[in-house]
Amino acid sequence: MLIRIDPRASEPIYTQIELEVRRAIASGEVSEGDRLPAARDLASSLDVNMHTVLRAYTELREAGVIDLRRGRGAVVLQQEPTVPEMGHAVRHLLDVARRHGIPLSQLHQALDEGAQR
Q: 1-81 belongs to which CATH class?
């Protein structure tokens, strides 16, 4: 699994890591039952603090994407099937937001407001 981060991006690094893991799962690069890299190893390869990776893993655990246990590491959980069209739409939306420098928080807000209409 290849994780890329941009230290100059407006999104926090832990959010970038979380999104990259979600992308890898959505693309099938990582499947249910697969172990994610140990936080220490991933932090070292990305040249970031281990607590940054742990925060990303914690966010993924709270979202029900991974199981995180001491001694067992981070393991990908079974995901609900998604409509392929939804994945394409999300990727397109994220690409547009990145091109225009729209932070993830603003994108979340726009989605929340759109859902209320």
A: mainly alpha
